[in-house]
Automatic annotation (TrEMBL):
Entry EC number(s): 1.3.5.2
Protein name: Dihydroorotate dehydrogenase (quinone), mitochondrial
GO annotation, cellular component aspect: mitochondrial inner membrane
Signal peptide positions on this chain: 1-19
Organism: Ciona savignyi (Pacific transparent sea squirt)
Organism placement in taxonomy: Eukaryota, Metazoa, Chordata, Tunicata, Ascidiacea
Keywords recorded for this protein, A-Z: Flavoprotein, FMN, Membrane, Mitochondrion, Mitochondrion inner membrane, Oxidoreductase, Signal
InterPro entries for the chain: Aldolase_TIM (IPR013785), DHO_dehydrogenase (IPR050074), Dihydroorotate_DH_2 (IPR005719), Dihydroorotate_DH_cat (IPR005720), Dihydroorotate_DH_CS (IPR001295)
Amino acid sequence: KGQIFQSAALLLGGASVFCGYETYQGNEKFYSNILMPTVHALFGPEMAHNLAIKALSYGVVPKKQKQEFDRLPCKVFGLEFSNPVGIAAGFDKHVEAVGGLNKLGFGFVEVGSITPLPQDGNDKPRVFRLPKDKAVINRYGFNSCGHQDAVTRLSKNISGETILGVNLGKNKESLDATKDYTEGVLKLGTYADYIVINVSSPNTPGLRSLQGRDKLKNLCTAVVAAKNQLPNKPPILVKIAPDLTDHDKVDIAHVVVQSKVDGLIVSNTSIARPESLESSNKTERGGLSGEPVREMSTKLVADMYKLTHGNSGATNLIELLMEAKVTENVLFVGKVPIVGVGGIWNGKDAYEKIRAGASLVQIYTSLIYEGPPVVNKIKRELNELLEINGFSNVSDAIGVDHK
Ligand SMILES: Cc1cc2nc3c(=O)[nH]c(=O)nc-3n(C[C@H](O)[C@H](O)[C@H](O)COP(=O)(O)O)c2cc1C
């Protein structure tokens, strides 16, 4: 009996040492095949998310995650990025883990969405894993610490080591969206390298209607005027949904260029539920992210690139432009940089978005399933693909599918 106990203890001890070692080393396969599935079996999605934020807030990350690659440094919005892979909004909603995320090797960190007043968001449960589909559905509904709390952390927490985006939302009960966003620009803008106007979350009633032409025009004009009052004048990006009609796309391109918005983030989560979904959670309400939105978002990156960079290949969209009485000249002088996000799992996915027109990319759902080593994996594979295809820098591959 004693011997069996001893052997079991040895085995358990050995396994713990092995797991501890692999966790510390940041072994990609160990994380995606063993550690993350175990975490998912033990904790619900929101609990796992909170634990990850806690660990990152203490700077607890696997070893040697911050590796840089020769083809990845790039300049976008006048900012120097060490690499083009960022963490998307919604992960560090309350500005708690910026330093830890920087240590994971992200080229930029976007915090938020942050609303003016603190609010709880929707009732729990409000995040669901769809493991068979490599996807997530969330209906957090902007649980936010509010501007004041964010300012406190932004002002003391930020090391200046990373490029920091601040993503702004509106309060659920607010009747004046423009006021919510302009307040955000004025209060948080001085701490931000760029600001995101999120008008595409599906979980705040009426929010996505702000993507309509007239409302968007008023909003963008006010927001750009507000940022021009700031000493640092951070670039303004508008984040859009993947579920837009061709008319919506044309309207957005038009407004963005005319109101001098600096960039687009393409895209947020989707309200669509593709036939292919297999997981039992597929019927949950909320925004779908991960692999099932990859193609939708890449297509939207391509469409928005064509609309804002002047490409004659976009025949159907150009016709719509003409119908909307928008001259090509008005639109195409803009050359609005695009941040591509949605379902990026590896270097190839990132490379596709860049070829479609993205200057930078972001991830969220792949981090949930693969854990921290996914960041380095994407960077390494992207660097390899650029080398194989004869690009000396990632910037040279932007939009090449259209050339
Ligand atoms: C749990 C969760 C919460 C999110 N919260 C926000 C948010 O607060 N603001 C925002 O702009 N996007 C939010 N997003 C959208 C992501 O930033 C991203 O646009 C989307 O998930 C697509 O990327 P992915 O497929 O790599 O996850 C959230 C996504 C997830 C999965």
